[in-house]
Amino acid sequence: MGNRAKLKRYAELATFPNVYLQPQELRGQWHARCFGNEHPITLELGCGRGEYTRALALMQPQHNFIGVDIKGGRLWQAARSALDREQENVAFARFRIEFIPDVFAEQEIEEIWITFPDPFPKNSRGTRRLTAPHFIEKYRRILKPGGLVHLKTDSDLLFEFTLATVKQCAHSLHHAVTDLYKWPISDPRLTVQTRFEQQHLAEGRTIKYICFTP
């Protein structure tokens, strides 16, 4: 895509009613100002083109969903697709995830999904990984009591790192699955496959899943 097309999309992004470029202004008011209801709110962090966010919203029409990403081009695709499908329970917010407590108030969020994030293999201490202890502490602050964090990944490194973090920090581990599609899946939300997941499966990679409460 050329620079002119990118600039056009960025300009359009600011006009989309389901996109928030200054999301900190809605902190503590997402139910009222974004969705106009009190339905539970679920986040997808690093949502990319919003495939998972939109699929979850179709499965759970009585829930609200917010996809979070920093890349405007991807959010344009996500938001445009949601608008075209008239998904009123879907919104998108552009910000860096380390600032998540500035965007959502304490206990404002029901669940968090992290689907195929960058495992940062060269980040030896793992501080950039979205399941690092300092990130999980931020999630804990915005989640309701008992709120769940779901991770889907094809990375052995990220899976083992996350599992070790959950155990070390004494979070409540619900599931740790090394091969999702050989496991008796009871939650249909786990069957959603994004474009990236389909590519991973075609390459013979196994999909790992962890679910825990911070």
Descriptive overview:
35% of the residues lie in helices and 22% in strands. The protein is an alpha/beta fold and 214 residues long. The protein has an 8-stranded mixed sheet with strand order 1-4-3-2-5-6-8-7, with helices on both faces. Helix 6 links the parallel strand 5 and strand 6. The longest helix is centred in the middle third of the chain and has 13 residues, at 72-84.
Entry keywords:
Rossmann fold, 22% strand, 8-stranded mixed sheet, 2 domains, 214 residues, globular
**Cα distance, first to last residue?**
40 Å
Second CATH tier, the architecture of the largest domain: 3-Layer(aba) Sandwich
Taken in chain order, the helices and strands follow as HEHEHEHEHEHEHEHE
For the report, how would you describe the main beta sheet? 8 strands, mixed
What's the short story on this structure?
With 214 residues, the protein is α/β, with parallel strands linked by helices. It has 8 helices and 8 strands; from the N terminus they run αβαβαβαβαβαβαβαβ.
Protein topology:
Blueprint: H1 3-13, E1 19-20, H2 30-35, E2 41-45, H3 51-59, E3 64-69, H4 72-84, E4 90-94, H5 100-103, E5 109-115, H6 133-142, E6 143-153, H7 156-168, E7 172-177, H8 195-202, E8 208-213
Parallel strand pairs: 1-4, 2-3, 2-5, 3-4, 5-6
Antiparallel strand pairs: 6-8, 7-8
Helix pairs in contact: 1-4
